[in-house]
Every structure is written in C-alpha cells, then in structure tokens.
C-alpha cells in the first residue's frame, strides 16, 4: 500500500513535523523539504544548503475568461447569449481547475489541525468548448486567409512577415507576468521554470529571425545562383498551406511556438488547437496575435480534441500537421485525412529515454582521474525529475550493473529525499548568502496524472520493486484534492513491470539491474522509441573499457537521435537538431530545421541569353517572391 499522509519515519514527532510543514506550506510561509537540508543544485535552482523559510504572500490566483479568436476577431464567451460576430453560434464553457491552488492567500501562525485539507483546487479560468461544426467554421476562416496561396499573409514579403512577428513579440512580452502566473497555477511549473519557458520562447523566436536575416542562406532568396552554366536559379522557401498545430501541456508556450513561429514566418496559415491542460496561457496571447497579423492568419480552437480534430482532418483541407503529444493520437489524426500521402507531417512524440551506467563508475582503483560519482548522481536527479519528470527528454529508466545497482539506488534515494517539495511560487532564503530557491517538486497538473503514477508504483511494488526513498509516492495534502506527489525511487524494476516499457512522464525513477550490457543493447534495439540515451562512464586507463563505451555509441547511433555522455537528455541548444526515430519523432526541430519542415523550396529559373535578363530585372521590381531580404 502506498504511503499517504504521515511520514513513515521517526514516529509521532515526524508525523507532527509533517503536519506543521504542510500547514506552513499551504499558508505561504514555508517550503516543505521532505528530509531536512536541501540539495537544490541538481534541478534548476541555486544551491541553498540548510535553507530557512522566508515570509511571503501568495500570488493572486488568476481568472482567465473564456475567449475565442477566429478570422481576426476576439470575442468573450458569455453564459447568457450567443456569439454572432464570429459566426460560431452558441459556445459552451468548461471550468479550468488550478493544479495547486489553496483555500486562502495568506497565513497566520502554523496550526496543527486539518492542515492537509487547506489545499483546494479552485477555478482559475474558463475554456471555450468548440463543437465539430464550430471547428469547421474556424477552418473556413483559415481557408479564406490562405486563399489557395494568394491570401494576404502568404503573399507578403519575408521581410514584412518578419516585421509582423517582431511586433507580435513586443505585444507578447507585455503579458509575461500573467503568462508566468498561469503556468504556475495551471500546470504547477515553479516560478523560475515558468519564467524560463517564456524567456526561452522569446529567445527562440529571435534566433529564428536572426537565422533568416544572416544572409548566408540561399534558401531565403539571397541571390541568383550562377553555378549552373547559363541557367540562373532563384530559390526561396515558400509556404505549404494550412497547418494544424497541436502543442503539449508540459511546455504549452515554448514547444508550441517552436513549430508555430517558423510556420508563420514561412507564410503558412495556422489552426492552433489549444491543449486541454495548460491552455490558459494561449488565451492570454490573443490580443498580441490580433494586433500583429492579418485576420484569419491564425485561428484558435479549444475543447475536446476527439470532437474538434477529426472533422478538420477529414475535410482534406489541412496541408500539414504539427503535432507534439502521444503517438496514438497522431496516428488517429493522420488516418482521418482522406489523402494522407500529401499531408506534410511533423511529430514530436513520447520517449522512454534511459541512462546506462558503466561499471567503471564504481571502480575505486582507477587512475585517480575518475568521474565524481556525486556529480553523476546530481545529473541523474536533474535528468529524471526536472519539472517533475514531465518532459519527453527526461530519463525514464536507469540501467545499473547488478552488483552496484542497490548501492546506487540508495545513494540516489538520499538525493531525492533532500529535494524541496512545494508550491510553484514558494521560496526559501539561504541565511548564509541570501540566495533564493524555488521548489524542485511541484504539484502535477491534475488528479489523472497522480492516479497514473500511483498505478505504476503499485504495479512495480506488486512485482518485487521497493520504494527506496522515504515517503516516496506520498500525496501531500487532501487525498481527494492534492496533486502534490513525493517522487518515488523504485528498485529493482524488471521487464515484467509496466515501468520497464511505459513512459511514466512523472516523478518516478525506475532502476533496472543488468548482468550484461548486451541486455541494454537489446532493450534499445527492440524498443518502441528512439529519442535519446545517456551513457554515464568514468575515465579509464584500460583501452578495453573505452572500446566497450565506443561500441555502445556505435550501436545507439542507429537507434537514437542524440547520445549524451555523462549528461542528462535534453532538447537544448535550440540551434542543434532535435530529432528521434521510431515512435518518438518524425521531422527535426531546431532554429533552422523547423523553417525547412514548414516550407517548400521553390525555384524561379531562366536562361541567361538574349534579353531575358532585362525581363527578370523588371520582374524583380514588382514581385514579392523575388524580393531579397
């Protein structure tokens, strides 16, 4: 049975300590540290050993009203009348429940009574629920804006589109504070990570524009190519058409914009499906889009994906699918298209990235130049639990040499026990240097995610795994309300466990012992996914050990999109290609590759003989397509 409210350690005194800690947490004065001193250097927080509480007030919970945005028109969704201007008819609304709200925004002295019941998930906004017909109405707006490629947006010069995106960025940045607050309350992202997501999105957009403007890329119409005899070629990437863009809940702004912005810059028209969870941030961007782009260039659709998406795909009017999510959903969408052969598909899907730890990490008789095991442990915690493990790039399974696996599991459990667990805006101040830290483990976005984590833990425990860290899997707060889950380190996880192959996408660290590296290679070759892998190894004076690691790299080079050495898996830097194989990806994401994914290289050609050059010069004066940056 999984632990629930009381710490399974230290008798009544520890139980009382938990009650007091939770009360302070929920009242805004403290950050719960599951096991005392914190080791915050491992997950996106400045180091703060022996950190103490700092008095603070809760940020005001947002309430984001339901709005629709189609054909360049923003409309509030009222409860008592129909929407007429956008031609959508009557629109239903669904309440959006915050993952980590509390029943009060301030606190008095910590109490020891009913403290866990203070965590209440409150309504923080409302989301319009499109019907199938309403989604088709939004499609009609996109069709008119595209106009067979002759619409206002696709016919603009690249320079004009860049200016429009830059204008959008200026308006978007005025919403930074509101977007950060929404990310904290709806999906439980701590303040530092929420700010980082917004800032990285802005930086990515600027990098894409800088890449286009660097004037070193002939694909954006820099000049006529004269390298083919008398044939002259002008090449510029042009739009594909109507792009259906679906982003994820875990990085609803950053990952969505990683496809959206390049697609817009290339002249495409967008249908943006707002994610069911994490979607409120998109409602905060509507005015920025309205002020920056011609009507119909981007249209928002919200509500049930099973209701709204099939009609769009079955219409045959969607030219490209930009999807970040589950492979099963992607398969259904693609199958719905009547002509899938002409559907341009870009997918970033699930992954079961794993780490393999070489025996030489535990060799104390090495050359004196060994990789520090503590550093590897910190990198492992970061790789498995950054943003609660809710990243496609997270390490989701760890392979350890059998004779060292339990020792490693115990050491890792100690690290996990020292993580801060709390609400996204909670802070602690280090009395020694004044550094401020935010919690490294925060609430999951909804109860469904908590129940799935519990089911995976229970399955592993029923098949012989042990929860290695104290309080692992414990829910902090009301068992029916709270989504704040203490991470669980599970060992040993065997092939019979669901966690061995299923992507948990949450704060669970499964550790699998191996007898031979051949087992790990077989797991990789036979696996469903192929995004990334991490190899953790130490310096060795033995050539044979180096050959073993090199052999692993060679095997993995045809299985994964990225191989990390002594570091966690990750997408960054954005200038590097982010790819995958099998059921993990189709297409490549980066500053440059995304531009290519959402455009077609288009040529204008002539023979440089007679008076043709004079004709071309005249055309250049009047053609938007032939305009150079």
* Large-scale geometry: globular
Spatial strand order of the main sheet? 19-22-23-15-14-25-26
In percent terms, what proportion of residues is strand?
15-25%
What do the pLDDT scores average to?
87
Rg from C-alpha positions? 26 Å
- Note the gap between the termini: 65 Å
Number of helices: 18
| Oligomerization | single chain
Sequence stretches where pLDDT stays below 50 over 5 or more residues: 1-55, 104-117
Which structural class best describes the helix and strand composition? alpha/beta
Largest sheet properties: 7 strands, mixed
Q: What share of the residues lie within helices? A: 25-40%
Strand segment tally? 29
List the helices and strands and how they pair.
Layout: H1 11-27, E1 32-33, E2 52-53, E3 67-70, E4 73-76, E5 92-97, E6 123-129, H2 132-146, H3 152-155, H4 158-173, H5 176-187, H6 191-213, E7 225-228, E8 231-239, E9 242-246, H7 254-265, E10 269-273, H8 280-283, H9 286-292, E11 298-301, H10 305-314, E12 320-324, H11 327-336, E13 344-348, E14 354-357, H12 373-385, E15 397-401, H13 402-417, E16 420-421, E17 428-429, E18 436-437, H14 447-462, E19 466-467, E20 475-476, E21 484-485, E22 488-491, E23 508-514, H15 517-526, E24 529-530, E25 532-536, H16 543-556, E26 562-565, E27 581-582, E28 585-586, H17 593-597, E29 599-607, H18 612-620
Parallel strand pairs: 9-10, 9-12, 10-11, 12-13, 14-15, 14-25, 15-23, 22-23, 25-26
Antiparallel strand pairs: 1-16, 2-17, 3-4, 5-6, 7-8, 8-29, 13-28, 17-18, 19-22, 20-21, 24-27
């Amino acid at each position: 049975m999984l632990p629930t409210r009381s710490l399974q350690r230290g008798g009544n005194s520890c139980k009382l300590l938990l009650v007091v800690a939770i009360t302070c947490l929920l009242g805004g004065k403290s950050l719960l540290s599951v096991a005392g001193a914190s080791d915050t250097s491992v997950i996106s927080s400045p180091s703060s050993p022996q950190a103490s509480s700092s008095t603070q007030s809760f940020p005001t919970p947002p309430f984001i009203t339901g709005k629709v945005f189609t054909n360049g028109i923003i409309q509030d969704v009222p409860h008592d009348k129909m929407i007429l201007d956008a031609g959508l008819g009557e629109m239903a609304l669904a309440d959006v429940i915050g993952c980590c709200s509390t029943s009060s925004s301030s606190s008095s002295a910590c109490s020891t009574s009913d403290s866990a019941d203070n965590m209440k998930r409150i309504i923080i906004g409302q989301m319009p629920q499109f019907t199938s017909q309403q989604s088709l109405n939004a499609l009609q707006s996109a069709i008119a804006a595209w106009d067979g490629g002759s619409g206002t947006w696709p016919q603009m010069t690249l320079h004009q589109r860049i200016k429009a995106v830059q204008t959008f960025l200026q308006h978007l940045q005025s919403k930074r504070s509101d977007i950060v607050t929404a990310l904290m309350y709806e999906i439980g992202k701590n303040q530092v990570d929420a700010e980082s997501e917004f800032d990285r999105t802005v930086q990515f957009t600027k990098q894409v524009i800088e890449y286009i403007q660097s004037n070193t890329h002939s694909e954006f119409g820099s000049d006529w190519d004269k390298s083919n005899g008398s044939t002259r070629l002008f090449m510029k990437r042009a739009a594909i058409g109507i792009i259906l863009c679906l982003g994820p809940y875990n990085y609803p702004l950053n990952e969505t914009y990683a496809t959206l912005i390049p697609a817009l810059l290339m002249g495409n028209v967008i249908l943006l499906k707002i994610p069911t969870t994490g979607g409120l941030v998109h409602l905060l961007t509507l005015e920025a889009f309205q002020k920056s782009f011609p009507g119909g260039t981007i249209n928002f659709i919200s509500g049930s994906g099973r209701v709204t998406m099939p009609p769009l795909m079955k219409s045959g009017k969607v030219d490209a699918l930009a999807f970040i999510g589950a492979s099963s959903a992607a398969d259904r969408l693609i199958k719905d298209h009547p002509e899938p052969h002409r559907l341009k598909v870009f997918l970033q899907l699930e992954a079961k990235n794993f780490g393999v730890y070489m025996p030489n990490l535990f060799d104390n008789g090495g050359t004196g130049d060994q990789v520090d095991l503590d550093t590897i442990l910190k990198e492992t915690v970061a790789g498995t639990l950054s943003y609660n493990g809710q990243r496609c790039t997270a390490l989701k399974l760890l392979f350890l040499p059998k004779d060292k696996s339990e020792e490693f599991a115990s050491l890792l459990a100690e690290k996990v026990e020292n993580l801060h667990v709390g609400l996204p805006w909670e802070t602690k101040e280090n009395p020694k240097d004044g550094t401020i830290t935010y919690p490294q483990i925060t609430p999951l976005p909804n109860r469904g995610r908590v129940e799935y984590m519990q089911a995976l833990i229970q399955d592993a425990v029923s098949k012989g795994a042990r929860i290695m860290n104290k309080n692992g899997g414990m829910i902090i707060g009301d068992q029916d309300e709270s989504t704040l889950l203490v991470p669980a380190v599970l060992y040993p996880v065997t092939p019979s466990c669901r966690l061995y192959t299923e992507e948990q996408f949450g704060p669970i660290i499964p550790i699998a012992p191996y007898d031979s590296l051949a087992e790990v290679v077989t797991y990789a070759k036979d696996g469903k996914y192929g995004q990334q892998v991490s190899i953790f190894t130490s310096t060795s004076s033995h050539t044979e050990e180096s050959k073993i690691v090199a052999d692993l790299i060679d095997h993995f080079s045809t299985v994964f999109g990225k191989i990390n050495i002594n570091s966690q898996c990750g997408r960054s830097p954005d200038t590097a290609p982010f790819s995958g194989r099998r059921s993990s990806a189709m297409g490549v994401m980066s500053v440059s590759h995304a531009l290519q994914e959402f455009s077609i290289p288009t040529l204008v050609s002539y023979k440089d003989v007679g008076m043709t050059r004079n004709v071309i010069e005249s055309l250049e004066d009047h053609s938007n397509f032939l305009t150079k940056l």
